């Protein structure tokens, strides 16, 4: 097979061109500069009474697309409508609720007739609480959560563990009217903050599950999608979903991923937070054109990718780079190449090799410096191999080495998964204890 036969469409050509020039940071920077020309305001977010309602001071909702609460003393919530008419999609992107905005979060879901929540983060990441626990921890009325400030209550009816994500069926009650509504939560539990899944395969399987539920269709209220800030992982999910819809309706030749991202950024600031997330979107779109086909089956590769992802996520997490766009200079460490995939063949043979960002993340800088670099020099970040088309023998040995490494990862998966589960149980127990102590303190004050 010749090299040119791999270039089946312009998106793959564009991906390979950016990869060969190691220009992901430059492309991402250009998108950021183009986004700054929109000049949209966020005056409501800057009002003194609303500032405490923002999880991060550099992530604010635009005024022209913000969600406005109706049955509340304050109509403000850090959330935006993201409407993509070309893909016939409408989402609500929001931050992970704070302890004192959980009621606002559920009120938004009730008022918007939302049938699904897509949660793309864990409660605790990098030893920090990134989202308040906003759903009951047990099933039934005994564990019901009631929010008197908005006159709503929620119960957990059922829960399903799907290895790297969970689904929960919740019942949301309006205490004023006595009506109730079922809400499904899709919780992706293995996507690192400021990072990407190790492979697009498992992510696409998650997206397929969400799509098959019908919650992304415009028949009901818009789905609520959140991570911690509601721009990085949330933006990545929406961009891949929209691009795949456009491909399915118009063909890959009519898709421009960068222009689609710019259109999304007209609705909520800062969507896609790192060059690596942008790169992952290209990978997922290219791979998804085949893997979202109902007749496509490759369960073995999917299983392996899930195992690797779980192993990666158990590693000690690094501190994050700035929450807002980091655009001024390119990262010192080259971005990793695309994982091997059937739809692209062995494209990694023509790309510089490096470890995944989840394995050796760049050294971060302050979250508040919104225009600083997102990575810095690291002596341990030098690539260990450089494979070109001319060194076929080296490429074969590299693939063999990767196969052995993958086998080692799979063999350690169960042990690491058990350790991760114990860690989560300890964290959950701590949250329960803190909550209990807080309630006891309130009772004493009364």
Automatic annotation (TrEMBL):
GO biological process: anatomical structure morphogenesis; negative regulation of ERK1 and ERK2 cascade; negative regulation of receptor signaling pathway via JAK-STAT; neuron development
E.C. no: 3.1.3.48
GO cellular component: endoplasmic reticulum; nucleus
Biased composition (Polar residues): 343-360
Domain Tyrosine-protein phosphatase: 11-288
Keywords, in A-Z order: Endoplasmic reticulum, Hydrolase, Membrane, Phosphoprotein, Protein phosphatase
Localization (cell): Endomembrane system; Endoplasmic reticulum
Gene3D superfamilies: Protein tyrosine phosphatase superfamily
Residues in Tyrosine specific protein phosphatases domain copies: 201-279
Catalytic-site annotation from UniProt: 227
SUPFAM superfamilies from the UniProt entry: (Phosphotyrosine protein) phosphatases II
Location of the region described as Disordered in the Swiss-Prot/TrEMBL record: 311-421
InterPro entries named among the record's database cross-references: NR_tyrosine_phosphatase (IPR051985), Prot-tyrosine_phosphatase-like (IPR029021), PTP_cat (IPR000242), Ptpn1/Ptpn2 (IPR012265), Tyr_Pase_AS (IPR016130), Tyr_Pase_cat (IPR003595), Tyr_Pase_dom (IPR000387)
PANTHER family in the record: TYROSINE-PROTEIN PHOSPHATASE NON-RECEPTOR TYPE 61F (PTHR46047)
Family: Belongs to the protein-tyrosine phosphatase family. Non-receptor class 1 subfamily.
Name assigned to this protein: protein-tyrosine-phosphatase
Organism: Mythimna separata
């Amino acid at each position: 097979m010749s090299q040119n036969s791999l270039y089946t469409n312009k998106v793959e050509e564009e991906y390979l061109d950016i990869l060969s020039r190691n220009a992901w940071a430059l492309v991402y920077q250009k998108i950021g500069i183009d986004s700054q020309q929109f000049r949209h305001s966020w005056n409501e977010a800057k009002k003194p009474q609303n500032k405490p309602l923002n999880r991060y001071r550099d992530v604010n909702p635009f005024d022209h697309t913000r969600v406005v609460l109706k049955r509340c003393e304050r109509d403000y919530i850090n959330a935006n409508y993201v409407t993509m008419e070309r893909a016939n999609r409408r989402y609500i992107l929001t931050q992970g609720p704070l302890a004192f905005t959980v009621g606002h979060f559920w009120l938004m879901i009730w008022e918007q007739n939302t049938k699904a929540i897509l949660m793309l983060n864990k409660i605790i990441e990098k030893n920090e609480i990134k989202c308040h626990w906003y759903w009951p921890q047990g099933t039934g009325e005994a564990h019901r959560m009631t929010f008197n400030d908005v006159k709503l209550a929620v119960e957990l009816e059922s829960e399903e563990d799907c290895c790297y994500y969970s689904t929960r069926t919740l019942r949301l009650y309006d205490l004023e009217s006595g009506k109730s509504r079922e809400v499904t939560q899709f919780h992706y539990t293995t996507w690192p903050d400021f990072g990407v899944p190790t492979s697009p395969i498992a992510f696409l399987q998650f997206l397929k599950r969400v799509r098959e539920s019908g919650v992304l269709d415009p028949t009901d209220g818009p789905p609520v999608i959140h991570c911690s800030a509601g721009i990085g992982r949330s933006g990545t999910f929406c961009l891949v979903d929209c691009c795949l819809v456009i491909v399915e309706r118009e063909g890959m030749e009519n898709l421009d991923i960068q222009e689609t991202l710019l259109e999304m950024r007209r609705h909520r600031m800062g969507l896609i937070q790192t060059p690596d997330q942008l790169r992952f979107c290209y990978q997922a779109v290219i791979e998804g054109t085949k893997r979202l086909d109902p007749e496509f089956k490759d369960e073995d590769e999917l299983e392996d990718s899930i195992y690797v992802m779980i192993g990666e996520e158990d590693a000690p997490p690094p501190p994050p780079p700035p929450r807002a766009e980091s655009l001024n200079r390119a990262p010192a460490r080259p971005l990793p190449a695309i994982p091997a995939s059937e739809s692209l063949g062995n494209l990694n043979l023509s790309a510089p090799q490096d470890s995944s960002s989840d394995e050796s993340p760049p050294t971060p800088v302050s979250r508040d410096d919104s225009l600083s670099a997102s990575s810095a020099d690291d002596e341990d970040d030098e690539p260990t191999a450089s494979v070109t088309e001319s060194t076929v023998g080296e490429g074969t040995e590299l693939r063999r080495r990767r196969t052995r490494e993958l086998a080692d990862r799979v063999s350690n998966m169960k042990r690491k998964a058990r350790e991760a589960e114990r860690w989560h149980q300890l964290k959950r127990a701590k949250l329960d204890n803190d909550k209990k102590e807080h309630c006891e303190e309130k009772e004493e004050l009364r």
